[in-house]
Amino acid sequence: MTPLPGGCYCGAIRYVISLSDPESQARTSICHCGNCKRFTGCNYGITTKIPRSAFAIQQGQGHVKVHEAENGSGVMLHREFCGTCGGSLLEYGEHAGDNVYVFYGTMDDHARGQVEPKGEFFCKLRDPWMPEIQGKTCPPLL
């Protein structure tokens, strides 16, 4: 198993992602949709899709808070974050099945290096000054 540790900004919450093969079990993507832009306060969101069973809180479970809201397209979205510092951890919803989307920046530096971005979504909404991920394609309908 390859452990990919991470946590919130203040350190109250620590987690580990356990994958036997990060290359095939994790997919990191940049998303240019309006929902991700608004939530992150940035011009994109970046998350790593993993099986829910691979994610485990190791410290600070009592600090985890959940926000639930419709995502703008009729899908209910659940986001988990730290109740102390407000740092985002992950999101999931009906669209995710048995997966969760871990916010990439919450992973420790060496963990992020094992799950680099493989693609982009909602590319038609990419800010014009932002370059594409080299060698990656965006689904044609997004």
Overview of the molecule:
- The chain has helices spanning 22-25, 34-40, 109-112; strands spanning 2-7, 14-19, 27-31, 45-51, 55-59, 64-70, 76-82, 88-93, 99-103, 117-121.
- It has 142 residues and is mostly beta strands.
- The chain has one domain: Beta Complex (Metal Binding Protein, Guanine Nucleotide Exchange Factor, Chain A).
- It has a seven-stranded mixed beta sheet with strand order 6-7-8-9-4-3-10. A three-stranded antiparallel beta sheet has the order 1-2-5.
- β1 (2-7) and β2 (14-19) form a beta hairpin.
- Residues 4-130 form the CENP-V/GFA domain.
- It comes from Xylaria grammica.
- This is CENP-V/GFA domain-containing protein.
- One of its GO terms (molecular function) is metal ion binding.
- Pfam families: GFA.
Would you summarize the structure shown here?
With 142 residues, the protein is mainly beta. 11% of the residues lie in helices and 42% in strands.
